[in-house]
């Protein structure tokens, strides 16, 4: 097939064959206990996905720490058709970068979906930190060099104009929007090569791409391999189950993060759960937790566009409500390492241990509730944590979460909430 040839030199395929359910439900130290709440200190201006608001929609953040002046660090966030937005630690706008315009009338416009950082990427002019973004409209990666000394324009586009499409053979295929979606970056500590792991919208593929600086100072990439997660599952009662979606859609992945210490990729398949696998995609993935709705039969209602669930057979997890969305890493006060996941379906966040060998047990959970004149987080897509001092404002680090339902203005919009990481660690006991 054309998309296979354009995508990879080798494929590790689990395909749509039925996957055996081997991962146990996550541990529950205090089942049914109310979760603690943490409170944001600041929020970014609301973005609106409509003609009046410029079709901008806050989605996925990344936190860049300024090593020379941590108090002047930046939060870089995708705004979908609104491009990229850059904020200071007071959540004030610093820079707005537009998404690419359509190449031809009728083509999909640029749509920046997820963002992650690469530190110390080797460029012809020396090493630099860069922000890597998935452009869903063009089915490409976009790369921006971070140069804080440039004041109001700290990000500069250094994408190679000849960078290839990731999953599509051409723009006509990209217009179907089964294109680059979720994203995580990874630098292999042995080879020092940097990669992007990219998921595909409405499909189960994850692609591994090596980032390649060019002699002209731009950045391109080449496909290495892909992995295809299951789209159907064998349940303990011997039946099979496929998550319900719109006709033709498979259960997609968006939230992803790589543990750099172990080279482990965590990937959130939205209607299924959290997978753990090697970041080089060379091994078999393991499902380490499931959404509560896992195994629940459902029928798509064409009239409403909704999935109507049947009886719950009880095969789901206990901590995640579909969709499971943003994933990010944090370190506790005792030095233990954790994975944080956005449980979008019930507006909570689940935290798992990631330093216990093959297991990934549940450790804690919390909500981001209103406080200090700032509302809480609902329907959260993206989240990012940086556990290092960021000046006087965030001496213990920062958690940034997306609010997908900001209704404080006259119309509904989206924004980002800034939370003191020290409060998260205290309230959860991590």
From TrEMBL:
Residues 1-29 form the signal peptide. Residues 48-60 have a biased composition (Acidic residues). The keyword Isomerase does not apply. Gene3D superfamilies: TolB, C-terminal domain. Residues 27-69 are annotated as: Disordered. It holds the Pfam family Phytase. InterPro entries: 6-blade_b-propeller_TolB-like (IPR011042), B-propeller_Phytase (IPR003431). Residues 28-428 form the BPP domain. Residues 27-36 have a biased composition (Low complexity). SUPFAM superfamilies: Thermostable phytase (3-phytase). It comes from the Bacteria. Keywords: Signal. This is Phytase. It comes from Streptomyces sanyensis.
């Amino acid at each position: 097939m054309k998309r296979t040839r354009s995508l990879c030199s080798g494929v590790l395929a689990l395909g749509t064959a039925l996957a055996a359910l081997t991962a146990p439900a996550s541990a529950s130290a205090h089942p049914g206990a109310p979760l603690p709440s943490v409170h944001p200190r600041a929020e970014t201006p609301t973005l609106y996905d409509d003609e009046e608001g410029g079709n901008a929609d806050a989605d996925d953040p990344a936190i860049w720490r300024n090593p020379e002046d941590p108090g002047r660090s930046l939060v870089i966030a995708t705004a979908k058709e609104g491009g990229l937005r850059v904020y200071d630690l007071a959540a004030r706008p610093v820079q707005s970068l537009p998404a690419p315009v359509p190449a031809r009338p009728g083509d999909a416009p640029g749509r920046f979906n997820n963002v992650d950082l690469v530190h110390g990427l080797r460029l012809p002019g020396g090493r630099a930190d860069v922000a890597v973004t998935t452009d869903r409209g063009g089915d490409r990666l976009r790369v921006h060099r971070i140069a804080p000394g440039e004041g109001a324009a700290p990000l500069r586009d250094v994408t190679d104009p000849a960078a290839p499409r990731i999953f599509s053979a051409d723009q006509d295929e990209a217009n179907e929007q089964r294109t680059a979606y979720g994203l995580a970056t990874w630098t292999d500590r042995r080879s020092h090569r940097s990669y992007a792991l990219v998921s595909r919208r409405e499909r189960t593929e994850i692609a591994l791409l090596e980032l390649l600086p060019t002699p002209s100072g731009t950045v391109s990439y080449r496909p290495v391999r892909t992995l295809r997660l299951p789209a159907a599952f064998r349940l303990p009662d011997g039946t099979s189950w496929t998550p319900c979606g719109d006709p033709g859609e498979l259960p997609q992945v968006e939230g992803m993060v790589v543990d750099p210490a172990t080279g482990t990729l965590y990937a959130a398949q939205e209607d299924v759960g959290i997978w753990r696998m090697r970041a080089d995609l060379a091994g078999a993935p393991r499902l380490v937790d499931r959404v509560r709705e896992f195994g629940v039969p459902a029928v798509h209602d064409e009239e409403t566009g909704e999935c109507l669930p049947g009886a719950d057979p009880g095969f789901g997890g206990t901590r995640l409500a579909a969709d499971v969305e943003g994933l990010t890493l944090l370190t506790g006060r005792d030095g233990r390492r954790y994975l944080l996941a956005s449980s979008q379906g019930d507006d909570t966040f689940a935290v798992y241990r990631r330093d216990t060998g093959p297991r990934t047990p549940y450790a804690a959970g919390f909500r981001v509730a209103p406080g200090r004149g700032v509302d809480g987080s609902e329907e959260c897509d993206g989240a990012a944590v940086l556990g290092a001092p960021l000046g006087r404002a965030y001496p213990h680090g920062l958690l940034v979460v997306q609010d997908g339902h900001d209704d404080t203005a006259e119309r509904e919009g989206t924004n980002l909430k800034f939370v003191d990481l020290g409060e998260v660690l205290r309230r959860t006991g991590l």
